[in-house]
Amino acid sequence: MKAVRIATRQSPLALWQARHVASLLIERNPGLEVSLVEMTTEGDRFLSAPLSAVGGKGLFVKEIEQALLDGRADVAVHSLKDMTSVFPDGLILAAVPAREDPRDAFCSPEGYTLALLPPGARVGTSSLRRSCILRSRRPDLEIVSLRGNVQTRLQKTRDLKLAGAMLAAAGLKRLGLEHHITEVVSVADSLPAVGQGVLAIQCREADADVRALLAPLEDLTTRGAVRAERAFLAKLEGGCTVPLAGHATVVDGQVHLRGLVGRPDGTRVVRGEVKGPVPEAERLGEALAEELLSRGAGDILRDFGRRDDTSRA
Ligand SMILES: NCc1[nH]cc(CCC(=O)O)c1CC(=O)O
């Protein structure tokens, strides 16, 4: 292979991620020509509405996947967190590099940590998962919707004089903005989203040359965790409409997956965890999803989930 084209969104985080993959490729393949195909997606055009109202996380991904399918690019780099559980026919998750910090980070211009927040404090996020988890612990908190790219959300936090905002530690670190973090929140206190901190490198299934080029970027520990998390996601099909968290670690060949489904206002949260060997990652993810469904997540999905389907009808 002499040249590859990488499709990416144009946000500073997306560009950082695409350039990062480009440099990983060039490092391993001196002389390879790598170019970026920069795209604006539907998700970028509707930044003012809550993600759950404009059709969910697939919005950031669909048009980039179409560019791959149309042959306008050879590789796509996404945040795995932004991807739904099912890929279009003909595309594969060719590689997942080593995961960046998967945790949420609290960023407070006033220097607050979560435990020190005064009663009734206003906290910014537009993630259903983050608001559910915050409200379940602290029903007094007022959640203020905060969308836009990472820098925009930090700016709005100051402009709106919020006590703080919850963002992904991975995005802040990649952009060199970690000095805004006042608390990196433990996985136990804020269970991350499925795929958080993981880069998804996608290509056409039939493109053997590109697959061979991408294969060395794969991190097997990250892949084990991703297999469990995404099997869990696939079974729950919550899309962006129900607060859903799923996070796995792999230690000594054992997957440890934790999951959560809740009501948007945090008045009900169903949590669980499973452990088992890496080759059974998918089965573990499905088993945890089924367990949560039988313990109350089914009711929550019925009451709050699948708004995607009705809006499409
Ligand atoms: N929702 C957008 C998004 N998608 C991925 C990341 C962060 C990077 C990652 O998780 O890999 C972010 C920003 C955020 O949630 O603060």
TrEMBL record:
<dbReference type="GO" id="GO:0005737">
    <property type="term" value="C:cytoplasm"/>
</dbReference>
<dbReference type="InterPro" id="IPR022418">
    <property type="entry name" value="Porphobilinogen_deaminase_C"/>
</dbReference>
<comment type="function">
    <text>Tetrapolymerization of the monopyrrole PBG into the hydroxymethylbilane pre-uroporphyrinogen in several discrete steps.</text>
</comment>
<dbReference type="Pfam" id="PF01379">
    <property type="entry name" value="Porphobil_deam"/>
</dbReference>
<protein>
    <recommendedName>
        <fullName>Porphobilinogen deaminase</fullName>
        <ecNumber>2.5.1.61</ecNumber>
    </recommendedName>
</protein>
<keyword id="KW-0808">Transferase</keyword>
<feature type="modified residue" description="S-(dipyrrolylmethanemethyl)cysteine">
    <location>
        <position position="240"/>
    </location>
</feature>
<dbReference type="Pfam" id="PF03900">
    <property type="entry name" value="Porphobil_deamC"/>
</dbReference>
<comment type="subunit">
    <text>Monomer.</text>
</comment>
<feature type="domain" description="Porphobilinogen deaminase N-terminal">
    <location>
        <begin position="4"/>
        <end position="211"/>
    </location>
</feature>
<dbReference type="GO" id="GO:0004418">
    <property type="term" value="F:hydroxymethylbilane synthase activity"/>
</dbReference>
<dbReference type="InterPro" id="IPR022417">
    <property type="entry name" value="Porphobilin_deaminase_N"/>
</dbReference>
<keyword id="KW-0627">Porphyrin biosynthesis</keyword>
<comment type="similarity">
    <text>Belongs to the HMBS family.</text>
</comment>
<dbReference type="InterPro" id="IPR036803">
    <property type="entry name" value="Porphobilinogen_deaminase_C_sf"/>
</dbReference>
<dbReference type="GO" id="GO:0006782">
    <property type="term" value="P:protoporphyrinogen IX biosynthetic process"/>
</dbReference>
<comment type="pathway">
    <text>Porphyrin-containing compound metabolism; protoporphyrin-IX biosynthesis; coproporphyrinogen-III from 5-aminolevulinate: step 2/4.</text>
</comment>
<dbReference type="InterPro" id="IPR000860">
    <property type="entry name" value="HemC"/>
</dbReference>
<feature type="domain" description="Porphobilinogen deaminase C-terminal">
    <location>
        <begin position="225"/>
        <end position="293"/>
    </location>
</feature>
<dbReference type="InterPro" id="IPR022419">
    <property type="entry name" value="Porphobilin_deaminase_cofac_BS"/>
</dbReference>
